[in-house]
């Protein structure tokens, strides 16, 4: 502390001093010097508090010009470490209170060096520097930052080029519109209102009238919208053209030879300027940025005018109207893909990746334990002769197929009723044995027969009773309505049986088919179908026996006598050993040859998006044309065991107000709007 008496004699006294041990690493010299300056401010605050002195009267000295440059700085920014400490220093002191002192005259330097105790009482640490006694009120100094470009504590200066332009209208407002015509009409009305306030027309103030709905107003509004969009998307190109310069090589419009017309609208120059055939709008169409929202509005507008035709017709309509949309192919394809009306007219049916085969097709077992069935026909048969001719009746056939061995059994029924089916099913069980599980479509004769046969039916509305039904003796699984592909395992065999039967019916005269002949023909057709090879016939002479369902059903293939294995003595001694050997042979070849043919996906190989509740769909109805198919909403989905949805419950509301729900496979649905 420096005290000056009345006779102008100055005295220095020691009040308080502190020194801290610096770490061996991690801090640079400027940081340590800055920490010393912070410590000086802390000591000054403590002395000012105890002696009731104003801190503005304190004077601070530092032998680091780097720290003094930090304190006096007003233009550059520091990183966090330095910025926090400079902020603390300037909170209590002003830069004018700081001055520079050489290192040899700095009394604080004595605390950082070794000093004998007998020299301490005469050192500058206690007596203070002598130059302070001679120094008066010196001239204020200003310190600059030392080497600001190489100082790591100073943030670099980032120069940003800002291009300011006067915007009277922002194109971001256009995104609130979903229709091009409404956008044009709105801005035409707003321009009319502006003129009304400015007194440029007959109308006054804010009002609503139809005077803005003129061709001239619409054209002027269209020009305003296009100019606004072009100014934002092609600002650099427009500036070059206004200055008479060539476009830069990086411009996306370089190949179009663009120019500005009399309305300052950017148009395509191209190479057709000498054409006298095309109209001017097609020779020099207006450039529209393809990524802007108005490009989407224009594409939707002309897609509607083209009556929702394909990409080429829509693109031609846009070009004939005098617009050149950059990247139009991708944009038009996207618009058509998301167009609800196009999906309604030409949208593809949904599908899902083929499901895994059920266990009842993959596990060996007794024939006709797991059965799939369906009805086909009818045929006209002669029931009795009359004087005028013959009385005819119709006959149908029920095909039972083994889900494992692919063998078939056919029963003839007189009518499509539950009672006829029950009789046929009883005959089938009496011949082939008890059935554990039945699969079929939702035919009315099948659904009605489940109650009479006391069979538990598991339909598409799987619920809490599913577990209980599987614990019972016979389980009947119904496929969803209108889903014949769910029963391809029997639909395919019905087709084969029909072709065989059609060939047999050519052998009898027309009108002579009787019930007995039809039954005989169907039995022979069953034998032919059951003798078909399940796998490609081998050309190996050591394997002459084709794998067919009849090998396990009858154990009487045509060449069974010639097929004698090495242990033939045991086979000849016991007939049951021969039968067991044929069964083992069938199942061994079934497992190694036939089962592997079911591995590949025949169709629907890719996983698609699952239907979710809330999706708006178009429901297929074969009784009416596609334009009359009803619209519906998904109210329930039925995921399979693999988590993929292949059937859903659809709610359809008709025009009279009543609603109906249908369960349909996804292959009968066209997704119009996805519920995201």
Properties at a glance:
15% strand; 676 residues; five-stranded antiparallel sheet; six-stranded mixed sheet
Shape: elongated
Q: What would you call the structural class?
A: alpha/beta
Strand order of the largest sheet: 11-10-9-12-14-13
Uncertain residue segments:
457-469, 559-569
Rounded Rg: 48 Å
* Percent range for β-strand residues: 15-25%
Largest sheet: 6 strands, mixed
Distance between the termini: 77 Å
Query: How many DSSP E strands?
Result: 19
Helix content: 25-40%
Q: What's the tally of helices?
A: 21
Instruction: Indicate the mean pLDDT.
Output: 83
What does this structure look like?
The chain is an alpha/beta fold. It is 35% helix and 15% strand. Strand 1 and strand 2 (10-12) form a beta hairpin. Helix 1 (29-51) packs parallel to helix 3 (80-92), helix 6 (180-198) crosses helix 7 (215-233) and helix 10 (293-305) packs across helix 12 (328-338). The longest helix is centred in the N-terminal third of the chain and has 23 residues, at 29-51. It is elongated. 22% of the residues are buried.
């Amino acid at each position: 502390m420096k005290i000056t008496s009345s006779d102008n004699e100055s005295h220095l006294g020691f009040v308080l001093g502190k020194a801290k041990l610096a770490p061996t690493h991690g801090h640079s010299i400027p940081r340590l010097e800055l920490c010393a300056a912070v410590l000086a401010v802390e000591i000054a605050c403590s002395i000012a508090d105890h002696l009731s002195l104003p801190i503005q009267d304190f004077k601070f000295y530092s032998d680091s010009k780097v720290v003094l440059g930090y304190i006096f700085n007003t233009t550059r920014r520091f990183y966090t470490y330095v910025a926090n400490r400079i902020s603390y220093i300037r909170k209590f002191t002003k830069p004018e209170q700081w001055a520079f002192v050489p290192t040899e005259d700095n009394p604080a330097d004595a605390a950082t060096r070794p000093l004998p105790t007998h020299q301490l009482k005469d050192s500058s640490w206690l007596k203070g520097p002598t130059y302070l006694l001679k120094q008066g009120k010196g001239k204020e100094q200003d310190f600059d930052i030392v080497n600001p470009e190489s100082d790591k504590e100073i943030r670099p200066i980032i120069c940003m080029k800002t291009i300011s332009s006067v915007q009277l209208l922002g194109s971001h407002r256009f995104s609130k519109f979903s229709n091009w015509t409404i956008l044009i009409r709105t801005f035409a009305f707003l321009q009319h209102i502006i003129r009304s306030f400015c007194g440029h027309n007959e109308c006054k103030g804010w009002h609503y009238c139809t005077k803005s709905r003129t061709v001239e107003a619409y054209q002027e509004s269209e020009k305003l919208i296009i100019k606004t969009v072009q100014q934002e998307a092609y600002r650099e190109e427009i500036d070059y053209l206004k200055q008479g310069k060539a476009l830069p090589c990086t411009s996306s419009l370089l190949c179009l030879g663009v120019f500005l017309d009399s309305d300052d609208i950017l148009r395509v120059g191209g190479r057709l300027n000498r054409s006298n055939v095309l109209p001017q709008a097609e020779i020099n169409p207006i450039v529209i940025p393809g990524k802007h929202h108005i490009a989407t509005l224009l594409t939707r507008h002309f897609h509607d005018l083209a009556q929702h035709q394909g990409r080429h017709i829509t693109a031609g309509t846009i070009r004939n109207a005098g617009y050149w949309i950059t990247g139009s192919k991708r944009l038009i394809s996207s618009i058509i893909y998301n167009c609800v009306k196009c999906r309604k007219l030409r949208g593809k049916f949904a599908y899902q990746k083929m499901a895994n085969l059920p266990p009842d097709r993959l596990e060996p077992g007794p024939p006709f334990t797991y059965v799939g069935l369906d009805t086909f026909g009818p045929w006209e048969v002669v029931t009795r002769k009359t004087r005028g001719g013959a009385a005819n009746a119709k006959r149908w056939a029920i095909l039972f197929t083994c889900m494992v061995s692919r063998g078939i059994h056919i029963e003839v029924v007189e009518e499509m009723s539950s009672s006829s089916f029950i009789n046929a099913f009883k005959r089938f069980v009496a011949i082939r044995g008890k059935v554990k599980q039945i699969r079929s479509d939702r035919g009315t004769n099948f659904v009605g027969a489940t109650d009479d046969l006391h069979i538990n039916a598991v339909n598409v509305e799987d619920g809490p009773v599913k577990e209980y039904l599987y614990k019972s003796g016979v389980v009947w699984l119904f496929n969803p309505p209108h889903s014949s592909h769910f029963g391809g395992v029997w639909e395919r065999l019905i087709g084969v049986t029909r072709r065989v039967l059609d060939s047999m019916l050519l052998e009898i005269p027309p009108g002579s088919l009787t019930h007995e002949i039809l039954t005989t023909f169907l039995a022979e057709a069953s034998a032919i179908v059951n003798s078909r090879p399940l796998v490609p016939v081998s050309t190996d002479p050591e394997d002459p026996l084709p794998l067919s369902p009849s090998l396990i059903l009858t154990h009487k293939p045509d060449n069974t006598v010639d097929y004698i294995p090495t242990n033939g003595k045991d086979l000849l001694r016991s007939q049951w050993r021969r039968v067991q050997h044929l069964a083992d042979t069938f199942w061994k070849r079934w497992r190694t040859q036939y089962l592997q043919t079911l591995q590949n996906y025949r169709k629907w190989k890719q996983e698609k998006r699952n239907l979710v509740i809330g999706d708006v769909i178009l429901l297929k109805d074969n009784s009416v044309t596609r334009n009359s198919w009803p619209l519906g909403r998904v109210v329930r989905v039925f995921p399979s065991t693999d988590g993929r949805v292949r059937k859903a419950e659809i709610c359809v509301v008709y025009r009279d107000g009543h609603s109906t729900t249908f369960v349909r496979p996804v292959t009968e649905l066209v997704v119009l709007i996805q519920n995201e």
